[in-house]
Amino acid sequence: MIIYCDCLTIGACAKAIQLCWRNLFSREKVVKIQVLDPLPDRGWSAFLRIIMRCLGFRVEEAEFFAGSLRMADGQVVFPTALSKSGDLAFRAAERALARSRFLARLNHKWGRNVIFKYISRSIQMPGLQVALRFMGAEALRQTNRTKEGFLIAQRHFALDSDLLRALSPGLKVYFYRSWLYQCSGATFISSDSYEFLKQKRACVLFLLLFLKLREMKWSLEALMRRGSKVQASFNISEPRLPSLLVLQEDDLSLDRSYRTQPHWFFPEDGKPPFRTLVLQTSSLEGLPVDNEALKAQGIVPLSKKDLYILSRRFWSSYPVQQRLRRDFWKCAVRSILGPSGEVRVLFEVARLLYTAKVLAGFCEQSHVRAFMTCENYMVEADAVQLIAKSLHITTLSYQYSNAGKAGPVMKTAADIMLTFSPLYHRLWIGDGIRPGRFTDIGYVFDASFGHVRRRARGHRRLLEKAGAQFVICYFDESVLRDKYGLISDKDHCAEILALLQVVLEDPSVGLVVKTQFRSNSPQNFAEITALLAAAKATGRYLELVYGTHRNIVFPAEAALSADIAIGHAVGATAALEAALAGVRSILLNPYGMKGENDTLYAQADIVYPSMMAALGAIRSFRSGTPEYVRLGDWSPIIGHFDPFRDGCAGHRMRALLEQVVMREGTEPLDLQHQPWEKDDQ
Length: 681
Known about the structure:
Blueprint: E1 2-5, H1 10-19, E2 31-35, H2 43-54, E3 57-61, H3 77-99, H4 101-110, H5 114-144, E4 149-154, H6 161-165, E5 172-176, H7 203-225, H8 229-232, E6 243-247, E7 275-279, H9 291-296, E8 299-302, H10 304-313, H11 319-337, H12 343-365, E9 368-373, H13 379-391, E10 394-398, E11 416-419, E12 437-440, H14 449-465, E13 470-475, H15 489-505, E14 509-514, H16 529-538, E15 541-543, H17 555-560, E16 564-568, H18 573-580, E17 584-588, H19 598-601, E18 607-608, H20 611-622, H21 638-641, H22 649-662
Parallel strand pairs: 1-2, 1-4, 2-3, 4-5, 6-7, 6-9, 7-8, 9-10, 10-11, 11-12, 13-14, 13-16, 14-15, 16-17, 17-18
């Protein structure tokens, strides 16, 4: 018999003792408890293990990595859990509305299924961590061929037991409750600082207290400083331009040769006839911002403090704000007096309503005519959906990645969804949530390809000067440093080491590396240090990196300096960008992942099961082997991903934004594409 346990807590140990109490002191064999979460070195953990050993249990950490652990059907645990967590979140949200007439009425009142969508979004991320543990335990049972197995897991507040047990059909699942939400030295589930608070009866009142104290602090700071430059630019006596409100998702800059925001704005096109308000959503420090250059183009960065101060400055009793305020207090009262099972959901809904109330005051007085984002998981994205109809705001969302599936965190009820091509429409339709309409504009960043070609040619010249005749470009993907990730440090390093070895063995090969984040740079891994130094010494190794957190170098810049690019089937956006830039591109799929686009990929010679297989194919291609003449060639299928391929997606987006923001009242939109000419840069 073996017992799997999500984490080592007093509650979990008590449940294990309860399961085996009948023969606690008469067992001949020690009962093994495998803990899924990392076992901490803290004293209380060691104390618990000593107690359990005295009672006949052997406690040990289960050694696995979710990116290499496979289910019985051969699927890897991580992508399977990711898919299942989205389905679980939708089912749990459906049950929450079915059980609560109050929440159902609220969802119907505000329309677009936004309340339902937001509830499911709030469940998916913690639900993913739960699914990883349940499915990880099931995969371990199958791997170990255990006939009788048990899983002891913390009771998850938002997911019913039958939904969770379906994740581990081969295990007998027992639940325990714990006042300690943080488990086994891990912070995976309790990633939200509000998580423990959400389960308490007075959670909405505590939320209101926290928000009001923060707002008082901001008000005092504004009073002492007599406003800010941002607030001064909103002088009510000045003529007011119509405004576009966007969420900050990248660094702010007018340099279109890097992945910055607003990426649809090109200085050569002139200043837009509207103001662009960019709301900061992250506390991560970004690149320095040239506020004067942005201001000259009508772009105004806003912090959440600025947003609140400005909304208070122009406070009104607009009807939509009154309705939001009333519904917020209904949530507060019901969280105290209503069913306990609704408390956590009511907290999330109250947070959404309060955010919408603040945004309503700001949008009304700032002449906001349109709102756009690509990060649909942010609370502001759903909050604007609540007030959009009342304030005559057109909402837009846009696709930025080569997505294979859209769960609750990606779904949107925006009026207009801007997509690469019709291939992706199906992803955003389902579970009662869909955009009002789709408009295809092509790959959203392709207008920047012409702006990176000069640097790419410079990179190529440097590599050729050192003797490189054939250059390989490498893109990483989703490297995570805990056991519940998809791609481990070890796998990441193994792929880079294989490439470095080729550079050292073949003096005609050059290598360009472009990682997704700075933290994944090869120079940050000690295992690579020796070979990396040797590769650099040849002059045929180049790493492209720029930015503070995300590496905002476009994959196209790296690809255009190479003969072939190697990316990953998971994500696959960097590899797609390379192909759209006209460079051969390969996808690695060592995890056997299955996706919606597999049938398309099979029509071209682009998917390989490992780095070694890909390098072998490249050697055959270079030697002229006929079977590999189409290696990395996306031409048979590229039209499905982007039917335009003219470098004008950003211009189409701007043209649409001008039409949306500048139209009067309910004037209909003309969504026909503009006849842009391809940039010959």
